[in-house]
């Protein structure tokens, strides 16, 4: 496996690796996008790299068995090792993001008994998932300039609370971070997770809060926000979230139904909006609580 890969290259070769889809869909989607990339005949696709990324080349009963073996053999079964591997591969370039991901232990935010430090999305119940570490790294880097001390951030679909905790440490006690999740059980769990993490003092002091609510409507109480992250795919960008974005602020949101793009939405100082696509992704849909529980759009 090459020791260094640019973020642009990772975007091209690892569509499936950026997915936050239920795990049962991951192999099929992986294979589709890897086949598309193979047709481009990239020189980055060494045989060892293909074996690492392509689940169809894995052996054994578990689709992730070879991947787990690789990561544990590289000491990425530990949080710092996971972050270091992402840095070495060129996924993380920001020193601040490296430090934040080393400080917030991902192992505290995944279901017990799951391989916390493997670069893969994981089911967290209720037809929801926690994104792969490299997706967290990407979103943190995209929002880094809007997560400076004293700023306000909103995490829609906060899930287990991992990224919300990262945001809180970045904006510090003078800032404000709000996580919104419409599954009450996940909110209760996320609070317990944060209480065990480096962000616990911020939760206790109140600069970090986690709420049950419909994230499509945002959280007006602490708006406007310098940064908004949405952890599920919207068919269209909710107007409430655009309205709650501060002039000069940025929102990162997956948009689309089956075919999705991670959109970077900037609100200029005059209130106008610019939108660009960062990469193709596959997230669970941003929908109502009832539809999510039923597993429908």
UniProtKB/TrEMBL annotation:
PROSITE patterns attached to this UniProt entry: PCMT (PS01279)
Which regions span the lipid bilayer? Answer: none
Question: Cross-referenced InterPro entries, in alphabetical order?
Answer: PCMT (IPR000682), SAM-dependent_MTases_sf (IPR029063)
Enzyme class name: transferase
EC identifiers of the protein: 2.1.1.77
Q: Which reaction does it catalyse?
A: [protein]-L-isoaspartate + S-adenosyl-L-methionine = [protein]-L-isoaspartate alpha-methyl ester + S-adenosyl-L-homocysteine
Tell me which domain of life the UniProt entry assigns to the organism this sequence originates from.
Eukaryota
Keyword Transferase assigned to the entry: answer is: yes
Q: Which UniProt keywords apply?
A: Methyltransferase, S-adenosyl-L-methionine, Transferase
Instruction: Give the matching CDD domains.
Output: AdoMet_MTases
Pfam families in UniProt: PCMT (PF01135)
Family statement: Belongs to the methyltransferase superfamily. L-isoaspartyl/D-aspartyl protein methyltransferase family.
Q: What name is this protein filed under?
A: Protein-L-isoaspartate O-methyltransferase
Species the sequence originates in? Solanum pennellii (Tomato)
State which gene encodes it.
LOC107012229
């Amino acid at each position: 496996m090459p020791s260094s890969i640019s973020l642009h290259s990772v975007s091209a070769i690892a569509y499936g690796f950026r997915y936050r889809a239920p795990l049962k869909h991951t192999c099929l989607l992986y294979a589709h996008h890897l086949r598309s990339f193979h047709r481009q005949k990239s020189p980055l696709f060494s045989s060892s790299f293909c074996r690492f990324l392509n689940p169809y080349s894995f052996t054994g009963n578990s689709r992730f068995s070879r991947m787990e073996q690789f990561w544990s053999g590289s000491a990425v079964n530990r949080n710092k090792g996971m972050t270091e591997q992402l840095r070495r591969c060129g996924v993380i370039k920001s020193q601040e993001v490296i430090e934040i991901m080393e400080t917030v232990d991902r192992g505290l935010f995944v279901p017990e008994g799951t391989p916390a430090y493997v670069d893969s999305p994981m089911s967290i119940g209720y037809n929801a998932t926690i994104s792969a570490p490299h997706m967290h790294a990407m979103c943190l880097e995209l929002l880094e300039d809007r997560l400076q001390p004293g700023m306000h951030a909103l995490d829609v679909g906060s899930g287990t609370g991992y990224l919300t905790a990262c945001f809180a440490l970045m904006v510090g006690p003078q800032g404000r971070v709000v996580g919104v999740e419409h599954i009450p059980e996940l909110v209760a769990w996320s609070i317990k997770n944060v209480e065990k993490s480096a962000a616990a003092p911020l939760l206790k002091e109140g600069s970090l809060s986690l709420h049950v609510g419909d994230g499509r409507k945002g959280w007006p109480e602490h708006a406007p926000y310098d940064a908004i992250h949405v952890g599920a795919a919207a068919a269209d960008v909710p107007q409430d979230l655009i309205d709650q974005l501060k002039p000069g602020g940025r929102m990162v949101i997956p948009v689309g139904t089956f075919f999705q793009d991670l959109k970077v939405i900037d609100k200029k100082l005059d209130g106008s909006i610019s939108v660009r696509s960062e990469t193709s992704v596959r997230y669970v849909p941003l929908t109502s609580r009832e539809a999510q529980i039923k597993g429908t759009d």
